[in-house]
Design goal:
two-stranded antiparallel sheet; alpha+beta; five-stranded mixed β-barrel
Length: 161
Amino acid sequence: ESVYGGGGHAMACGIKILPEKIDDFIKDVNEYYSGLKLKDQDRFFKVSAEFSTDDLGEFSEEVLNEISELEPFGDENEEPTFELLDVETVEVRGVGTEGKHLRMVVTDADGKRMTLIAFSAPEKWLKIPVGQMISVTVKLMRNEWNGRTFVEGRILDIRGI
């Protein structure tokens, strides 16, 4: 029986691995990648924002409604990303059953606040101290609670840590 198998289409890939061969697969992939001797690959993992601002007051329910008019989002119609420039952390904590998700509250220079979320956050994000000045790339989300709508951000990248 084959150790590896695969499939997929132009925008996806699928793979089958025998459970007892996962460690071998990871080793083989890492050796292959290292053997390519590629340079400056981090640039492909950086998220670039379409819009930047240092004013959290710009994010309103009206903006969320305008963004929803651009749907559906997908490969040919990417959801807009925003960079929150020079915001200060006022709350940073792990949430979820194992504390692996990040809930962060940031404030701009005028004291306006915004809640940000990262699911399965990198460990270094969970260790950002309160009072840290950062820039955060996000996609906007709607959070409705008690009849009110709040604009929140799903974190894609954090700079300044």
